[in-house]
UniProtKB/TrEMBL annotation:
Residues 453-475 are annotated as: Disordered. It comes from the Bacteria. It comes from Actinomadura graeca. It holds the Pfam family B12-binding. SMART domains: Elp3 (SM00729). Its cofactor is [4Fe-4S] cluster. Gene3D superfamilies: Cobalamin-binding domain. Residues 7-133 form the B12-binding domain. The keyword Cytoplasm does not apply. Residues 156-374 form the Radical SAM core domain. PANTHER family: ANAEROBIC MAGNESIUM-PROTOPORPHYRIN IX MONOMETHYL ESTER CYCLASE-RELATED, BLL1977 PROTEIN. The lineage of its organism: Bacteria, Bacillati, Actinomycetota, Actinomycetes, Streptosporangiales. This is B12-binding domain-containing radical SAM protein. The keyword Methyltransferase applies.
Amino acid sequence: MRVKMILPALTEATSPFFRPIKYSLFPPLGLATLAGYLDPGDEVTLTDEHVQKVDLSDEPDLVVIQVYITSARRAYALADHYRARGAHVCLGGLHVTSLPEEAAAHADTIFCGPGEDIWPRFLADLRAGRPGRRYTSSERTLAGLPPVRRDLIDRHRYLVPNSIVVSRGCPHVCDFCYKEAFFEGGKSFYTQTVDAALAEIDRLPGRHLYFLDDHLFGNARFAGALFDGMRGMGRLWQAAGTVQAVLRPGLLEKAVASGLRSLFVGFETVNAGNLAEQRKWQNIDRDYAQVIKRLHDNGVMVNGSFVFGMDEDDPDVFGRTVDWAVGQGVETATFHILTPYPGTRLYDRMAKAGRLLHSDWDRYDTRTVVFKPAKMTARQLEDGYWRAYKDFYRWGSILRGASSKPTLRGKARHAAYAGGWKKFEPAWDMVIRAKKAGRALPVLESILSGFGSEPARPAADARTRTRPAARSGRR
């Protein structure tokens, strides 16, 4: 069977605001994971439209397309094209799960929810000549997950080819998050076994890893055992976590000892009133400054995430947020405009109140206002969002943030990382467009290796040291 898997380009990745460095970071692991279930005799290709063109002249038997909200229009166009050429077309992903009827008009089969239980069932039905129209996930487990088909990924096209996912979902229930809709009907957070996660890490070359899990620290027992198992492997890694996880005694220290050097943290807002409104319970009554201090004291860089446009935000929120983040020495920041994705409680609440401006999914990109804000105009919100990025990454702000570090070396690392991410984008663009992104990885590893209060042991030690959790089978 000839199988073609496609990750269509997000609308924002093809707009005038296209940032190659952002859309060339990570390979499409979801599709590569599903490819692991195919038979050895199947001919399979995987195309990531962010880094390569889709060949529309081929004639595959099966086409599998992963759909996000701002890639839906492109995904449907590709699906229609291949259906007209006689292929059996499958659509799955966050947007399909949220709006299955919309997606079903462009597919022979749709998948709702995670694919680990429904994709193998579909393949068996397809080979038996009776594929279904819709498969809905209900059994949630990562037991027996086949190895990710990394041989299908063109590593040199990505800055972070060693991305990895060892869990699914998140234990929290924030109103603006897609997670509750995607995992409806079963567990919304579950992990691999520690042994399986460590085996996948062992397969990856080099030193650097990036965990793409929504919340790597979500199960403290699993995370602690994973970090124990990774200690001594010589890895340098980045991930995402919550303020609650950072403040948990002992867990951060284990992460640092195993190679954690940079953490994406969802602070979301500097207005405490917004947290209850969005059910961001894990952030309420937490000392954000203490979170940053704890990370910096352990040598971990901070990528702070902030959302603008919640109902307690007024036109002053942008300046206050940037001033706070720069003053705290946050190395990098990611800003978003609040976006009510279909299938979320936020969407339902705003739809009921008549606050949604339209359903043009191309513009639900977290940088365009698609609802009526409570305490400012849509123009104020959008302009403030862009101004926040400009103000945070101006040289004056970068140097001010660097000055918060106690040592000259720390100041230099801060300036190098923050400046390198934004100020040298033209150079990054040239490297990425030349399909040489992978060659920049040693630069990233060099910067990260200077962080961490307890540097990871050399890679050579990993083969001689006993890993505490590697044979425990703990989850």
